[in-house]
Amino acid sequence: MKNRFIILFVLVLLSACNDRTESGITQQPTLADYTVGEKWVWKYKGVTTNGEVRSDGKDTREIVDIDGVLGMTIGKDTIPLTEIVKPEESKTPKYDWPLKVGKKWKYENNWTSQDGTTGNQSQDAEVLSYKKETVEAGTFMAYTIEYTGKTTNSRGYSADETEVWLYAPAVKNFIKLTQNQGDFLYVEELIEYSKPD
Known about the structure:
CATH architecture: Beta Barrel
Order of helices and strands: HEEEEEEHEEEEEE
CATH class: Mainly Beta
Largest sheet: 10 strands, antiparallel
Number of strands: 12
Strand order of the largest sheet: 6-5-4-3-12-11-10-9-8-7
Helix content: under 10%
Strand content: over 45%
Number of domains: 1
Oligomer: single chain
């Protein structure tokens, strides 16, 4: 369950990507990059090395207009897009904009899950490539971003981890996430993307 909360937080950050890509360099998005009715659906599954399924389901996001304010639905919550596209002011950000192949940085994150567990991620990030990638939702030009490091929490958990994110500028989001964390493998893949004409 802890992994699901970490991933949910990261997904909010990841959705702050756009399709403003020139010569393999992608800038952070603006409100103008989103359209009411735009929708993403991912399937996800998390399994231990012993075969225990810890998470299995679908995650849907949609851009909505509430009283003239654009927001993104995430579960039962709606987050204003102004929060999602706001530049992250950190020396160790999840994304070091603009994205481009070969870029490296340090990512650190302290978090608290809904059950009160606190934790820390410390990872080295690198953009490995920008090429066509195919997932269930289709084929997209995508960055491969690899994060390697360690996750710890207040319950004594500690694990080396590797995360590989495939981020597609055309859909302003990630299309696949593969996370190896100790004895746990989590995979999330975009299965549907739609945008009103």
